[in-house]
Amino acid sequence: MNKTTKIIIWVVVAVVVVAGIWYGVSRKPAPVAEKEPVKIGVILPLTGEAATYGISDREGMLLAIEKINAEGGINGRKVRLIVEDSEGDPKGGISAFRKLVEIEGVKVIMTELSSVSMAIAPLVKEKQIVMFSIAGHPELTRQSEFIFRNYPTNTSIGGVTAELVMERLNLKKAGIMYINDEWGASLANAFREKFKGSIKMESFGSNDKDFRTQITKLKAFEPEAILVLGHSNVNLGIALRQIKELGYNGIILSTLEVSYPEVLETAGEAINGVIYSDLNIDYENNPVAKEMKEIYVAKYDKEPDLSVAFAYDMTNLLINAIKKGGYEVGGIKDELLKTKDFEGVFGKLNINEIGDVEFTLVLKIFRNGKSELYR
Asked: What is the DSSP letter of 141?
């Protein structure tokens, strides 16, 4: 074998080796592309007067999302929340909706506040997007088959509160002091319609801090009880405190908003004796509620409020519907309507034929700064 032949053989061998290496490398499977996340749009009041609700909502939603993602997501797809700030303003809500639907391409959104949710409702109907809301407007879920609600309606809160206090307290004469917005007016009117005795009503503005004029007028009416309806920012706690400061010694009534930490802090000792309608969460015996509270306290170093609980349950109801119906509007809607005895923070949850989660209200009272069932 001459020198030229040896060179040719070595060249052939080298080519074969290189070709084999290239073939082996090329045969390696391409990295598996990560599945597209399931996108859920969220419109919350993260700034503005209602930010208390929105911030707690976001915490509750994130808690649920983190849990489901840690368990593998929805059919192997991670869940991604895309959160927009409505600032508590209907126009801000509409802008957020358009961004989420037209740019992000979401098929479902979660919202907070009646004013924002009602403003978005026509767009939900037009675009056929599923909307799940924490909002009390009684007509909200009647706006579209694609709208659902995880909150008692204003009329149910006002009406049931009237029935409870008549039954349990045998009241015949009551005053109402309410915030002059859609929420406050609808609750006050619902209470008035169900209450079988005499009523006097006084309103106040969302930015008011001095309620002595309204309280003085109500005191002159000599009611057995005064129902105070306000949001959980500082004016509700101030109103409760001023009622006591002006010497009213009758019964003070309110609704579930009175249980928020901001109200308790602002009202101080005036919170004691307040009787209010609320939802009951059994943090000791309900495993879902107990787990949520433990995770929340560990993460945020504070107790969860009602907004956290509403948002946590709403997110889990939605995730359950997406798991069963797929990430398609029709499937999500149909599965939400099938919801029966879903285990949530508030117990077994059912969604009725118009899209409302059904709740049972109870009477509670504050004693020594702590809430307990009224017996």
From this structure: G
C-beta of residue 94 within 8 angstroms of C-beta of residue 342? no
Helices 306-325 and 329-337, packing angle to 10 deg: 120
Most confident of 101-110, 157-166, 183-192: 101-110
* Pairing label, strands 362-367, 370-373: antiparallel
Cα–Cα distances in angstroms (integers) from residue 211 to residues 235, 272, 275, in the given order: 9, 19, 20
Cross-sheet strand order for the sheet of 79-85: 79-85, 38-44, 108-112, 130-134, 147-149
Residues 6+ apart with CB under 8 A from 20: none
pLDDT digits (tens, 9 = 90+) for 109-136: 999 999 999 999 999 999 999 999 999 9
Return the bridge partners of 83, or none: 42
Instruction: Give the pLDDT confidence of 262-286 residue by residue, as tens digits.
Output: 999 999 999 999 999 999 999 999 9
Q: Which residue segments constitute the domains of the chain, with CATH numbers given?
A: 38-152+284-349 (3.40.50.2300), 155-278 (3.40.50.2300)
Tokens of 166: 């008549």
pLDDT-derived band of residue 234, with 50, 70 and 90 as boundaries? low
How many CB atoms sit inside 10 A of residue 118's CB? Answer: 20
